[in-house]
């Protein structure tokens, strides 16, 4: 049975696919944290420990991701009325229960989603034993007309970004109460519920993941 890797260093870096996600920032994270790649961020981090997407359509489109060496995870889309189809069930994707859209789910078999993959990945990091979560690519808005670093995929409306920001905001208090620190190292971000920090400060160059 597929199991989530546990973070040995205490730090999980999450690479979301906002337009400010930079290849050099992604490369900098390697070896300094356990890494979750969200959706197409895996194109910049094929070495990531975990690949996460909430979107069944993304998994269908990216069937070749069955060769990803790390652990692949999604949330059961039952609440979105999008039934699972092969190859998701047939090729080792770990499917967690969808238990709501706000707050944090602490039961390891479920996720709160914030109705976006970046939000759900924050909850996923909790299950991996994170005591500190570093966010990259959490723009929550457009940059030079782009909504993703790869300039493809559906473009959320500005009202959708507002919803994503509000729902991720509901995660801040339970994370703090659990003693889990979150820092937003995205180069640009409309997400204000977590403190901002330069990436080099959040992940010092001397920092390394314990083997």
Query: What is the residue-averaged pLDDT?
Result: 86
What series of H and E elements makes up the topology?
Answer: EHEEHEEEHEHEH
The share of residues in helices is 10-25%
Q: How many helical elements?
A: 5
Distance between the termini: 23 Å
Number of domains: 1
Give the SSE layout.
Layout: E1 11-15, H1 23-29, E2 34-38, E3 50-52, H2 56-61, E4 71-75, E5 94-98, E6 110-111, H3 117-127, E7 132-136, H4 158-177, E8 181-184, H5 199-202
Parallel strand pairs: 1-2, 1-7, 2-3, 3-4, 4-5, 5-6, 7-8
Describe the structure.
This protein has 211 residues and is of the alpha/beta class. It has one domain (11-202). 23% of the residues lie in helices and 16% in strands. It has helices at 23-29, 56-61, 117-127, 158-177, 199-202; strands spanning 11-15, 34-38, 50-52, 71-75, 94-98, 110-111, 132-136, 181-184. Strands 6-5-4-3-2-1-7-8 form an eight-stranded parallel beta sheet, sandwiched between helices. The radius of gyration is 16 Å and the shape is globular. The two termini are 23 Å apart.
Task: Briefly say what this structure is.
This protein has 211 residues and is an alpha/beta fold.
Defining traits:
single chain, 211 residues, alpha/beta, eight-stranded parallel beta sheet, 16% strand, globular
């Amino acid at each position: 049975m597929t199991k989530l890797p546990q973070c040995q260093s205490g730090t999980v870096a999450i690479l979301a696919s906002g337009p400010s996600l930079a290849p050099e920032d992604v490369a900098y994270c390697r070896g300094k944290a356990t890494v979750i790649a969200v959706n197409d961020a895996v194109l910049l981090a094929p070495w990531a420990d975990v690949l996460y997407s909430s979107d069944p359509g993304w998994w269908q489109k990216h069937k070749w991701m069955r060769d990803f060496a790390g652990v692949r995870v999604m949330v059961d889309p039952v609440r979105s009325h999008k039934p699972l189809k092969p190859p998701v069930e047939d090729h080792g994707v770990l499917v967690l229960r969808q238990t709501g859209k706000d707050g944090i789910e602490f039961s390891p078999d479920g996720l709160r989603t914030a109705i976006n993959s970046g939000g759900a990945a924050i909850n996923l990091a909790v299950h991996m034993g994170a005591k500190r979560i570093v966010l990259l690519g959490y723009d929550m808005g457009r940059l030079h007309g782009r909504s993703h670093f790869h300039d493809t995929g559906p473009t959320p409306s500005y009202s959708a970004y507002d919803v994503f920001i509000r729902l991720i905001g509901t995660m801040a208090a339970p994370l703090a109460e659990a003693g889990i620190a979150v820092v937003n190292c995205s180069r640009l971000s409309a997400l204000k519920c977590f403190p901002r920090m330069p990436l080099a400060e959040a992940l010092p160059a001397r920092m390394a993941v314990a083997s």
